[in-house]
Amino acid sequence: MDKEKAKTIRESLAADCTKCFGLCCTALNIVASSDFPINKPAGTPCMNLQSDYSCQIHSQLRDKGFKGCTVFDCLGAGQVVSQVTFSGQSWRENPDIGKKMFQVFPIMEQIHEMIAYVAEALSYDIPDDLSDKLGKQLEELQALTKLDADSLLSLDLVMYRFSSNELLTLASDFVRGKTIEKMPGFQNIKEFNHARADWMGKKLKGKDLRATDFKGSYLIAADMKNTDLSAVNLIGADLRDVNFSGADLSTSMFLTQMQINSAKGDLKTTLPSHIQRPSHWIH
Ligand code: SF4
């Protein structure tokens, strides 16, 4: 697949709340914590959800203790479930479809997440055979988004996750390997492997972390101010409260909006084109 087309697909995976029936505010379970001031069971609308599916306290979420709402991102799954799977029918006017709609939402979220990662990998400079395999995987995943609700509920997502992860690791290793080759004093790629590492609160300010594999790592509250994170694999890394002020994340791999929303940064942080700078970084 053409790299620009893949980049466009990745960039298109963004929530459009105007086309969604408030699914994240209804389908999901909320537990009182530092991110939420209330408990809410799955399938029950949040007390702040209005009749037009907008949030009554949208501009004051953080001030009112709903930090978790400013972090969440469905990658566009909400509008697809609302408008495609259920053809524009809302759980409010059709209560009999509500239960199924709320069950489908987290499944669609996972499919969109896999599509985002696979499309991103296709936008890299990678060998043609790997690109072909990723292209087929993307087509299969995109086809899943058009299935009806019952078919979505019976999917074996583990199988798709497994096959996607294998290809994503190959793409990441290839890109990281190419970056390492260009670094002075050519080093072994294994030395850059910190997958699933526990680096919570670690002081890494100003470090050159290029091409590091942080897959599934715990980096909570790490200080990454002014760090070079080019070609770093951040898939599944826990980035809550990581300080990315002044850091270069422009070519970091598999970074999601949700990860960035949970982190800290500033106007000097550089981000990939598919990631928006969170408004709470600026105000
Ligand atoms: S506070 Fe607003 S954004 Fe958060 S769950 Fe409730 S309605 Fe949704």
Helix content: 25-40%
Question: What characterizes the major β-sheet?
Answer: none
Rg over CA atoms: 20 Å
Discrete helix count:
9
The CATH topology label of the domain at 190-283 is Pectate Lyase C-like
Text of the CATH class of the domain at 190-283? Mainly Beta
The 3D shape can be described as globular
Strand content: under 5%
Distance between the termini: 40 Å
How would you spell out the order of helices and strands?
HHHHHHHHH
Instruction: Give the distinct bound molecules.
Output: iron/sulfur cluster
CATH superfamily of the domain at 190-283: E3 ubiquitin-protein ligase SopA
CATH architecture of the domain at 190-283: 3 Solenoid
The mean pLDDT is 95
Number of strands: 0
Low-confidence stretches: none
Structural class given helices, strands, pairing? Answer: mainly alpha
